[in-house]
């Protein structure tokens, strides 16, 4: 895959999809699958013959709004399906691409640089919504959760298409590549590992999000989806922005309980400082700041205590064989949480346009948050020895993994 080292925009992906339908009206159709909370369109691009293809593969991009590579990967997959029209017809498949599930959140993330950026700048512009404002369940794309319009649109789409394979395209700030499956896909480990190796992206041997999942090969974790209604296999592809080989070490950790206790203590210390900063920001911002950024910042700060308690519990659980990769993944999560909160608080202060006098309360708070963000982001990258993954390669690994999974679904 070739292209600029920049993430696509929501509008740019929709425009490119529209052009694809104009160039190939015999195969491509585009329709509105619903609307977001703010009225943004949820576009569905379908590639396949209008009749005679009753098997569907659903690909969802932008399920998490701060993971933009998937939108470009979905577009690349659509173009690939058009290019391989004979194979598409022989397989009897229609590919359906929900181009962005959370356009509201994606637009908030587009305010930062589109391409490669210093880590501190990345976290300075990241928006990660509060848990109740995510349009899909944490462990399954297909399990219905809540009553958000994006969630209802996705549920209606799944009920209509009943896909044999559902793929959601995800990313992470720092880590390795891995795949979560609702059921084992025989033969997927080999092409996934080969693609990751060719792109020099480490395969993650253990994750914080799938600690108790069953391994199905290097980087593959099986977690049966709760509440899934229509069968089919679900594949969630995770690809990092900054890659670290520390998450690729599958050797047992010599003392995971102590290591996780240290991480929990660090989080509690960061949490106390973060709560103080959040309280100061609330006093300065007043009621005018109420909105998704404030709710997200409040959620981020409030989650630290729960994560720390979870680390303590996981470390004491002898039934979990924790590896070096697991502890590295937890270390990343512990370092990342304060950075997201600091970045969103800084955005709130920026948007409020408060007193810029260097001796004023807002300026002093902003300076403290900037220092913490700069130092914390630098420490995260240095501690993990992480390197930037070019954006076209992030997209390529997502796309190649989806194609490999589709080729192995009966």
Please describe what this structure looks like.
- This protein is an alpha/beta fold and 410 residues long.
- The chain has helices spanning 10-23, 69-83, 85-91, 103-109, 119-124, 149-161, 189-198, 256-285, 292-316, 324-352, 361-384, 391-407; strands at 28-35, 41-47, 55-60, 93-98, 165-175, 178-181, 214-215, 220-222, 233-243, 387-388.
- Strands 1, 2, 3, 4, 5, 6, 7, 8, 9 and 10 form a ten-stranded mixed beta sheet that branches.
- The mean pLDDT is 90.
- This is Putative hydroxyacyl-CoA dehydrogenase.
- InterPro entries: Peptidase_M14 (IPR000834).
- GO terms for molecular function: metallocarboxypeptidase activity; zinc ion binding.
- Residues 17-110 form the Peptidase M14 domain.
SSE run: HEEEHHEHHHEEHEEEHHHHEH
**In CATH terms, what is the fold-level topology of the largest domain?**
Aminopeptidase
Provide the β-strand percentage band: 5-15%
Number of strands: 10
GO molecular function: metallocarboxypeptidase activity; zinc ion binding
Organism: Actinacidiphila reveromycinica
Domain Peptidase M14: 17-110
InterPro entries: Peptidase_M14
């Amino acid at each position: 895959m070739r292209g600029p080292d920049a993430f696509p925009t929501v509008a740019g992906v929709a425009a490119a999809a529209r052009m694809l339908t104009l160039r190939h009206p015999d195969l491509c159709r585009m329709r509105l699958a619903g609307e977001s909370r703010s009225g943004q369109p949820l576009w569905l691009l379908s590639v396949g013959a209008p009749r005679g293809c009753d098997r569907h593969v659903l690909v969802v991009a932008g399920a998490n709004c701060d993971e933009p590579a998937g939108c470009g990967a979905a577009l690349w997959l659509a173009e690939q399906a058009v290019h391989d029209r004979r194979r598409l017809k022989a397989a009897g498949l229609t590919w359906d691409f929900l181009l962005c599930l959370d356009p509201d959140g994606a637009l908030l993330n587009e305010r930062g640089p589109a391409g490669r950026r210093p880590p501190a700048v990345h976290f300075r512009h990241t928006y990660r919504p509060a848990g109740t404002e995510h349009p899909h369940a944490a462990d399954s794309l297909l399990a219905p959760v809540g009553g958000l319009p994006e969630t209802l649109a996705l549920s209606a789409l799944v009920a209509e298409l009943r896909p044999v394979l559902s793929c959601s395209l995800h990313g992470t700030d720092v880590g390795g590549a891995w795949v979560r499956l609702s059921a084992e896909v025989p033969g997927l480990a080999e092409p996934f590992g080969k693609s990751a190796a060719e792109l020099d992206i480490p395969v993650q041997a253990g994750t914080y999000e799938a600690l108790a999942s069953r391994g199905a090969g290097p980087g593959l974790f099986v977690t049966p989806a709760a509440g899934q209604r229509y069968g089919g296999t679900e594949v969630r592809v995770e690809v990092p922005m900054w890659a670290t080989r520390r998450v690729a070490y599958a050797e047992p950790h010599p003392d995971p309980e102590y290591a996780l206790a240290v991480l929990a203590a660090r989080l509690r210390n960061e949490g106390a400082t973060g709560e103080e900063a959040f309280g100061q920001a609330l006093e300065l911002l007043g009621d005018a700041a109420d909105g998704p950024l404030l709710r997200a910042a409040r959620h981020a700060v409030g989650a630290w205590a729960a994560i720390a308690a979870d680390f303590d519990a996981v470390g004491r659980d002898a039934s979990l064989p924790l590896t070096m990769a697991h502890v590295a993944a937890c270390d990343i999560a512990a370092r990342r949480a304060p950075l997201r909160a600091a970045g969103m608080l800084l955005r709130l202060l920026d948007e409020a346009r408060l007193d810029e006098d260097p001796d004023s309360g807002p300026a002093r708070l902003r300076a403290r948050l900037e220092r913490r963000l700069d130092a914390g982001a630098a420490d995260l990258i240095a501690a993990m020895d992480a390197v930037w993954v070019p954006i076209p390669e992030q997209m390529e690994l997502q796309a190649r993994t989806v194609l490999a999974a589709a080729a192995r679904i009966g």
